[in-house]
Specification:
The protein is mostly helical. It contains 6 helices and no strands. The chain starts with a helix and ends in a 9-residue tail after the last helix.
């Protein structure tokens, strides 16, 4: 049992090797003697791209500042749960979702599914 705990502890330490390496690189000086970090340079580049109209940069800044938009599904009063699950699955597929990941739809009887 102690061996399993050591393995789990070791795994926790090694799970973040890539993250740790990135943190070191991001906090390095942009150039020798500079007080500006690489992270600041990347942030400035993102803001510059957003100001130039780069939609991906604009979305990234918005998502980082305000958080990712929540997916909203309006529920009608008195709507049955099976109907809600089917409607969610249908809207997810129409939005480009992966049908393999929609296991909730399989739990709904075929008679309750939309045509």
């Amino acid at each position: 049992m102690a061996n399993a705990k050591l393995t789990a502890a070791h795994r926790r330490k090694t799970d973040h090797l890539w993250r740790d390496a990135l943190m070191l690189a991001l906090h390095r000086e942009e150039s020798p003697g500079s007080k500006r970090t690489m992270l600041a340079a990347i942030a400035d580049a993102c803001v510059t791209a957003a100001v130039a109209g780069d939609m991906q940069a604009i979305k990234e800044i918005g998502n980082r500042m305000d958080g990712m938009p929540k997916q909203q599904l309006d529920v009608e009063p008195g709507e049955a749960m099976t109907s809600l699950v089917v409607r969610w699955a249908t809207e997810t597929l129409r939005a480009g979702g992966d049908s393999d990941s929609l296991q909730a739809e399989a739990a709904v009887p075929a008679s309750a599914r939309p045509n």
